[in-house]
Amino acid sequence: MKRLLSIFAILFCAATAFATSPALIPLPQQMVLQTGTFTLCPAQLIPGAPAPAVTKILVDTASRETGEYLAAQLFKSTGYRFEIATNSGAAPVAGTILLTTNSALAILGVEGYELTVATNSVVIRAPASAGVFYGVQSLLQLLPPEIFSPRPVVGVPWTIPCVYIQDAPRFPWRGWMLDSVRHFFNKDEVKEFVDAMALHKLNMFHWHLDDDTAWRIEILKWPLLTQVGAWRTNVNFGLNPRSSTAYGDDGRYGGFYTQADIREIVAYAAQRHITVVPEIEMPGHSSAALNAYPQFGCGCQTCSSPPGSLDNTNSNAGGVFCAARPETMAFLQDVLTEVMDLFPGPYIHVGGDEVNSSNWQQHSLDQTLKSSLGITSMQQYQGYFTQQIANWLKSRGRTMIGWSEIMNGGLVTNAVVMDWLTGSSSRAQQAATNQQFAVMTPTSTCYINYVENPGVTWSVEPPSQSGTVTLSTVYNFEPIPANLPAAFTNYILGAQGNNWAEFIPSRLNMEFKMFPRLCALAEVTWTAPSLKNYTDFSNRLAIHKQRLTQMGVNYNPSLTPPQIAAWTASQISTSLSVLSWDITSSVTTAGEIDVSFCWKTGANGLDIAWAALLENGVEIDRDTHAGFTGATPSRPAYVLRLPARKPGATYILQAFAAGRSGTNSNGVIYRPNWD
Ligand SMILES: [Zn+2]
Fold first, then answer.
1. Separation of 386 CA from ligand 1 center, angstroms?
2. Same-domain status, 163 and 178
3. Which residues are responsible for catalysis (predicted)?
4. In CATH, what number is assigned to the domain containing residue 200?
């Protein structure tokens, strides 16, 4: 692979001479632009009945599913129906897109491909079906951004520049982690995230399915896990609970994935060559499970108990499974058996981070076991527990993954380390030099739920978990640890972006934090380092954002949102009074209207008791919660809902507000798109 990359690097120098090189993300290893274009189909001049496309899609057996995926994508935006025909040949055929695994370059590996666009034919040739799929992703990006529209687009010339691409990923693990625990994303939302992963040639979907605050996966043998563990009344978002759609019929917050839901999502991901890696946390972060089944905790007299309710405000409540009770291990094996049945991929993630071992220290059973094993530290005791799980999974043909801390007590074998920590706590080097695999996801570069643009919370960005990870920080991340000897670098499987959801109450907010940083992470894991250039990436990203827009992905534009109103000191009183603004011109459609009050100048901030939307003088909706906008703002965004927009009506925004300790307050009201 290394030799291949150096060939790519030389050839790429020639390709970059073309100023108008297509804006592909992630950047292919080699791309040579040629003169001319291939016309996929004529522009639709009027939206009408689906027309048959002149261009046909030819497939061999291994490429048929991807051929059907391509035809479905093309139909949505072009309105043309593309016929799919079987062709076992390897040569280009005029007027067709040939997808084939015949006569492919074996050196490209299971995920590599060649893409040749000539004026009269397109060929995607790959050693295996995954490479064919990635070739199709590149082909789609060579088309105008409107190709990603979910609806037929009129007037777009569907042409593809003639080009030769030879490409293969740098790393086999190009991941993204979704936290469905702190916020429950429904099945359709998860599929949208999977589609966005596919656009970026990401291939590992790490799904965080349980934690202290919820259990999200149906386990048939232990039904209380979801009956009890999937619901809470205290939403506890850093944003406004009104933003969230994850409420049950009884008003409780949460939800879970049935086993049918899981199978559907796993199949959907597999069609996009994405492996789903489920995570079931153990032994820590297990309060939700222990709330359902307390008997699997330590339960000693002085031990801390399960919380009794999931309405806690701490996302890390310190729940810990008893490592000494045989029935606990049997329970965990029951759970993992059903998990393995649902997730056919090679990896099972079992968490292992931030374990609170105080119950183990107080529970005689754990102390007795620990002594009998000759173990001296709690880190080693966790290592003992984890090794049992790793060996058990190995015996069933799977590989265990755990967070950095699984190796705090020493090497755990039959395991992959997912390294989220930095500095001396980082375990990747330790794992790799012991010939154990590692996935890099350090907080400092891969936690893309952190702030992207520091200093502009509540105006340009919603609040986030504390910490900053800028777009360029992600882009410049090098997954191979600097001091890792070359002999062990192959033990670094790749890297992954993580989106923890304590501050993410909606799909819009999630996508705002995912993108464009996940675009950068895709290039980190796919493209050879010698080809990476942040300025070039930024230029390509400008085009790529048009693709995201077409797909309906709510990326962070790093821009001040539209301003819909403002206040000045002369309007402010020190006692609560109603402030009103005519926002009719900003209300162009029905739906959710989010407003963020952003203090700009003056000695006094503004306390806000509620905000309301009025239509022709009649109140339509009101969001009542205590907010403050000032130097240190607190929940100054309000969510207002307009079920139907009435043409010609006047829309007034009201706030019940008071200057805090004075009236010198001036600010603006933005309409953000992330709440
Ligand atoms: Zn115990």
1. 15
2. no
3. 354
4. 3.20.20.80
The secondary structure element, H or E, covering residue 99 is strand 96-100
CA of 600 to the centre of ligand 1 (A): 54
Is the pLDDT at 455 greater than 90? The verdict is no
Residue among 467, 417, 423 nearest 446 (CA): 467
Q: How far is CA 464 from the centre of its chain?
A: 15
Strands (DSSP E) along 168-274, which ranges? Answer: 173-179, 204-208, 231-232, 253-254
Q: Would you state the pLDDT for residue 20?
A: 67
Domain count, the chain: 3
Both tokens of 498, joined, read 């993580």
The answer to whether residue 354 is catalytic is: yes
DSSP, res 154: B
| Options 111, 264, 354, 619, the catalytic residue | 354
Give the position of tokens 């796993």. 266
- Parent domain of 406: 173-300+321-527
Return the ∠ at Cα 78 (arms to 72 and 80), rounded to 5°: 70
**What gap in Å lies between CA 338 and CA 349, rounded to an integer?**
14
Q: What sections of 110-248 are H helices per DSSP?
A: 129-142, 187-199, 224-227
Distance 322 CA to ligand 1 centre (A): 4
The secondary structure of 533-594 as a DSSP string is -HHHHHHHHHHHHHHHHHHT------SPPPEEEEE-GGG--SS-EEEEEE-GGG--SSEEEE
> Residues 216, 137: one domain?
no
pLDDT, mean of residues 478-484 = 97
Instruction: Measure the CA–CA gap between 505 and 493, rounded to whole angstroms.
Output: 31
Same domain, 340 and 374: yes
Q: Which residues pair with 634 in a beta bridge?
A: 628
CA of 306 to the centre of ligand 1 (A): 13
Residues 378 and 268 in one domain: yes
Residue 18 has pLDDT above 50, yes or no: no
30 and 136 in a single domain? The answer is yes
By mean pLDDT, which of 174-188, 231-245, 376-390 is the weakest?
231-245
Task: Say which DSSP state 145 is in.
Answer: G
Phi-psi map region of 318: left, alpha, beta (phi>0 left; psi -120 to 50 alpha): left
Q: List the CATH number of the domain containing 121.
A: 3.30.379.10
**Are 35 and 65 part of one and the same domain?**
yes
Same domain, residue pair 143 and 202? no
484, with CB counted inside 10 A (0-12, 13-18, 19+), is middle
Q: Is residue 549 part of a domain?
A: no
Q: Is 617 exposed, middle or buried (0-12, 13-18, 19+ CB in 10 A)?
A: exposed
User: Does residue 316 have a pLDDT over 70?
Assistant: no
> Cα of 324 to ligand 1 centre, how many Å?
5
Q: Pick from 344, 390, 518: which is nearest to 448 by CA?
A: 518
Q: Are 209 and 178 in contact (CB under 8 A)?
A: no
